[in-house]
């Protein structure tokens, strides 16, 4: 009898030691909870590198906060970052690594060129991809792809309407050669239809272009009174300098001000020390880090304490996107692609950068603000 008792105890110890629990007569195997992985493809080098680091800071802060609050359904959130180099080929290579080697649960990326290349790859790989770009077609053409950024059509249409309100009659668009620029052109054309304002010409250029003198001479020859610039701020540094050299007095119009005419030291210096942006108009994301809103003040404080940097809009957008992912994934007991997709479509986030809600195509609707350059600074219109 004693021997039987000892054997029973030994067996019980063995069961417990192997990691099982006995609850109400049922044996439930303990599971090690693996982290949930976000694979982020950011422009940490190349032409858009000036936004890459701020974007990463926003994601890091959100991930740290979520993990300190228990993660997602008890699972740690892990951020794996790759550099897109602001290059579509490098971005796809990064996506391939993240999906097939790192086995990420969801993919995230920014900038138009990189996102446009990654979107079909993610779709083919059966991986949900969230991106920041002003081009909507990556989402509308792929049901596993979601766009969270305000779009080029709206930014440029509203900028053109602002130009019309300011009495501009002859507009021109100088833009990077990428998909968003065609959306921008369409927005301007729709804004100017049935008015006496005309889009006289569109000239596009490649990312590496540094000489804009031919384009700017046409601006002068065509008597353009409103020049829309749809590109990255770093691309516009030589354009602004050459416009000064050629004595171009046309009003500059900056759809998506944050990315096109602001945020890099060279442009900020030109704006402060020359007349190149005097009277300029723009559209932008309605984000004010100096707002008295308690939620904004608390966010600014947390960001300052963590990074000791000045907060910008890019940090707020990526921060919100991580929380959007958290809210969606919380609804999934099993992280299947289908559950992640459906959860995102039904998720609304009241974030630091505004409300994010998707339409049926996975495109977020966002607010747009009007701005002007007055007394050497950008202010609300």
Question: Can you tell me about this structure?
Answer:
With 381 residues, the chain is of the alpha/beta class. The protein folds into 3 domains: 1-31; 36-150 and 292-357, 3-Layer(aba) Sandwich (Rossmann fold); 152-284, Response regulator (Rossmann fold, 3-Layer(aba) Sandwich). It is 45% helix and 21% strand. The chain is built from 14 helices and 16 strands. The chain has helices at 2-17, 49-68, 88-100, 112-124, 137-140, 152-165, 179-192, 213-221, 233-245, 257-260, 265-273, 294-307, 313-330, 337-345, and strands spanning 20-23, 26-29, 36-42, 77-83, 106-110, 129-132, 145-147, 170-176, 198-205, 226-230, 251-254, 281-284, 348-351, 354-357, 369-374, 377-380. The protein has a 7-stranded mixed sheet. It has a 5-stranded parallel sheet with strand order 4-3-5-6-7, sandwiched between helices. A hairpin with a 2-residue loop joins β13 (348-351) and β14 (354-357). α2 crosses α13, α3 runs parallel beside α4 (112-124) and α13 (313-330) crosses α14. The termini are far apart. Residues 1-31 have low confidence and may be disordered.
């Amino acid at each position: 009898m004693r021997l039987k008792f000892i054997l029973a105890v030994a067996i019980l110890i063995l069961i417990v030691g192997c990691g099982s629990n006995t609850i109400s007569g049922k044996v439930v195997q303990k599971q090690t909870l693996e982290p949930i992985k976000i694979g982020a493809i950011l422009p940490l080098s190349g032409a858009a590198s000036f936004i890459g680091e701020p974007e990463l800071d926003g994601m890091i802060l959100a991930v740290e906060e979520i993990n300190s609050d228990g993660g997602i359904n008890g699972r740690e959130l892990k951020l794996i970052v790759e550099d897109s180099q602001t290059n579509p080929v490098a971005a796809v290579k990064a996506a391939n690594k993240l999906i097939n080697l790192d086995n990420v649960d969801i993919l995230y990326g920014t900038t138009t060129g990189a996102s446009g290349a990654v979107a079909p790859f993610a779709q083919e790989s059966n991986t949900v991809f969230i991106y920041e770009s002003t081009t909507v077609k990556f989402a509308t053409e792929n049901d596993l792809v979601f766009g969270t950024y305000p779009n080029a059509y709206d930014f440029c249409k509203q900028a053109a309407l602002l130009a019309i309100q300011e009495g501009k009659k002859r507009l021109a668009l100088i833009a990077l050669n990428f998909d968003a620029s065609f959306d921008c052109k369409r927005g301007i054309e729709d804004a100017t239809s049935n008015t006496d304002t005309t889009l006289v010409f569109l000239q596009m250029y490649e990312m590496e272009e540094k000489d804009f003198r031919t384009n700017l001479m046409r601006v002068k020859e065509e008597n353009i009174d409103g020049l829309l610039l749809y590109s990255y701020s770093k691309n516009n540094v030589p354009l602004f300098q050459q416009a000064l050299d050629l004595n171009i007095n046309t009003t500059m119009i900056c759809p998506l001000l944050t990315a096109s005419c602001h945020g890099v030291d060279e442009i900020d210096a030109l704006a402060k020390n020359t007349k190149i942006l005097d009277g300029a108009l723009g559209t932008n994301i309605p984000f004010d880090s100096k707002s008295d809103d308690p939620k904004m003040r608390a966010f600014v404080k947390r960001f300052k304490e963590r990074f000791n940097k000045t907060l910008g809009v890019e940090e707020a957008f990526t921060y919100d996107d991580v929380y959007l992912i958290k809210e969606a994934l919380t609804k999934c007991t099993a992280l299947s692609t289908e559950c992640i997709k459906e959860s995102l479509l039904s998720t609304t986030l009241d974030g630091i950068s505004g409300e994010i809600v998707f339409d049926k195509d996975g495109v977020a609707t966002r607010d747009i603000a009007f701005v002007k350059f007055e007394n050497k600074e950008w202010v609300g219109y």
